[in-house]
Structures are given as C-alpha cells and as structure tokens.
Amino acid sequence: MKGTKLEYRDCGWVWAFVCFFACVYSFPGLASDEGHESSVIQLNSDCPPGFEQVTGRCYLRNLYQLYDSLQNAGVGGLKTGLPVIRDGFTPQQIDLGRYLFFDPLLSSDGTLSCGSCHHPDLGFADGRSRSIGVTGEPVKRSAPSLWNVGFLDRLFWDARATTLEEQVQGPLYAVDEMGNSEKQLLASLNASPVYRRLFQDAFQSSRIIAAEVYTAIAAFEASLISLNSRYDQYAHGYHAALTNEEIEGLNIFRSFVARCAECHTPPLFTNQEIAIIGSPEPEGLPFDAGEGELTDEPTQRGGFKIPSLRNIAATAPYMHSGNFADLRDTVSFYTKGRGHAVPENEQLSIHWHIWEPDLADHELDLLVTFLHTLTDESMQPQIPKRVPSGLMPVGEIPGVPVEDLAPGD
C-alpha cells in the first residue's frame, strides 16, 4: 500500500472485488450498537465498514483508489479517482459523533437532532420541501443529503462553509433550525456524566469544549459512504450490473446533448461548482438569490451548489427549494428551455450548460431509470437505541409518526 492509494497490481478485477468486499465486511459496526444491551453506553472501538484502522485511526478504502483523479477533483469517466476524503478520525470520535448526531439534546428545546432533518431512512434528508426547525416553521431551504459529504470542499446550498466543522455550527445555532447557542450546548453536555465520560474516551479531555463537539459530528458525517451502487459495480468492470435500459440512460446522461455529466460528473456525481440554473421557487415564496445573497454580486444571483446525485432516488423532493416532487419532474425541467422559469424581474447569468436539449419523453424516462442505479445504502449506520441525554433518539420529524422514527431492535 502506498500512501492512501491501494495497489492491486498483482490481482485481477475479480480479486479486486474480493479485496474490497473483504475490507468492507470484515469490520463490525454496520447496524450494530455495541454496549447498548448493558447499562453503560460504550463507544465502538472498530472503524465503520469500508474503513481500515491504522495506528488507531480510520482510513477509507475503496476501488476508486485504483484510479487517478484529475487535479484531485474527482471528475471524469467511469474509472476516475475520487477527491481526497476527510478521514483519519478515531473509531471513538466517529461513534461519539453518531450519538451527538441523533441526540435532541443539541437543540434548544430538546425536540430536534441533526437526524431530524438528515434521517438515514430518508436518504439523510427529511422528505420535505423545506425542513422544519424548533420554531415549527419551515426554514429557507431543503435539507441536502449527507451521503459522501466527507468528499465535499464546499457545503450548504450556497456553499458558505468550507469544512464539516463549520457546517455543523450552521444548523446548531440558527434560530430557525436547532436554535441553540454554544454556551447552552456546552452547559448541557458538561452536565451529563455520560457525555463527559464519552468525550474523555474520544478526546482524553476532562471538560467538553466546542471544538470537540464539532469534530465528533464531522467525524460521523465523513463516515457516511455510498460507493457500492450498481452503477459503481458497472464502472469497475461488471457489465451485467446494469440493464440495457439503464446503460442507455447512462449514455444519455453523459451525452453532449443532455450534458448532465458536465455538472454531475462521475464518480462523485457533482463537480462541486456553483451553477445558476433558474430553478423556480414554490408558489408564493420570494426569489432565493443563493450565493448572490452572500456576495451581493449580480452575476451570482440564483447560484447554488451542484449537489451529488448519489442516492438521489431516496431524497425527494428536489432542488434547493424542494420544488419538484419526483425525479421525472426534475429532469423535465432541464429540457423546457434555458431560463424558462426565471422571474420577469430577474436577470440571471444562467450556466452555459443549461440549454434546450429537447429530449423525448422516453429519453427522460431512461434518465430516471439510470438515476435509480446510483442508490447504495448498504453502509447506512444504525440509529442508537438510546442516547446519553435519555431523550428519544432522532427527535421529531413533523408529519412522521413517532413510532416510525423509533430505532429498531
């Protein structure tokens, strides 16, 4: 092994698959909850599936490390490497982050956790056009999926954060989201003997500090890996992983006519850029300027980060405003003409990839068929059966029955 790049020069593709699956499934922890049957919550000492433990820290291992990555951007064809991921956390830090992520103690009133808006069973989104915060009112934008977020170098729809730790603080302290303050958060955590013990295990600290909270949640979020979809199996050389119709959809996706792959570029299925596409707002809502609101730059009005399409079939509704209910409506938007939904009083610099491909209905159907092949939730983490605060794990998702949110046995 050289650095973080795997070397399989002495084994063929079949053996490479064997190596990969042995790596993924040799680690306990998937759908496990070590210590929860006892009276004391203990942190897992094993890395999550897909990660190798080296000198006590977890490093991701996957077949994409066989390939080069152009300028470390993770964009290109089927056999292109991914960008560098944020890894190297300890197993204890990752597992502590899991408890924090699902504990409503982190919100101002103990009703919402990070998992309320990023639920594993909802593609790490929440199935709503706009998430609901502690005020009971919808927030400004939809909750993006967190799958593969450790690869991203810009976060939030308007790309205002550049690290996971910075991103974590956004919803924690936004008055319309979790509504907490750093002072209250630290007071709540330090008042918990269980959390003090867990932070001691993860960080060897006698008193919990804010930076450790952010690091732990970032560690958990960076462990959310989805790289074994049927598309991935096809990309690595197993042609039978996709049907003829799905391959046709992939060809349309990558074609110069549809141009989907120019922004949603494999293997991450995003080029991580900002694009202005003129997506409409839901009826009655004002225009959302996106990145332009932060920069006050007219040419950036309506600009949003291009999301990854991995597990896209599980994260409806779509766009920053959740304005499209399903994938068919979403792909149809791109064939209706450049800037067709831009308000009359707005002059937007529509991205040059957005044009008028004039795709037929059957081509749109094939695109949707292909997008379903990007689904892989095989490494979905287990929601803790209980969290250190004693509150109900996850918290509340408005409109979803409580019994549907309770973790299974």
Q: How would you describe the overall organization of this protein?
A:
- The chain has 409 residues and is mostly helical.
- The protein has two domains: 13-225 and 379-405, Cytochrome c-like domain (Cytochrome Bc1 Complex, Chain D, domain 2, Orthogonal Bundle), CATH 1.10.760; 230-374, Orthogonal Bundle (Cytochrome Bc1 Complex, Chain D, domain 2), CATH 1.10.760.
- The protein has 13 helices and four strands.
- It has helices at 13-25, 91-101, 114-117, 164-173, 182-190, 193-203, 210-222, 230-235, 244-254, 291-295, 327-333, 361-371, 402-405, and strands spanning 51-54, 57-60, 274-276, 303-305.
- It has a two-stranded antiparallel sheet. The chain has a two-stranded antiparallel ribbon with strand order 3-4.
- β1 and β2 form a beta hairpin.
- The radius of gyration is 21 Å and the shape is globular.
- Mean pLDDT is 87; it is low at 1-38 and 405-409.
List keywords for this structure.
disordered C terminus, 28% helix, mainly alpha, Cytochrome Bc1 Complex, Chain D, domain 2, two-stranded antiparallel ribbon, globular, two-stranded antiparallel sheet, 409 residues
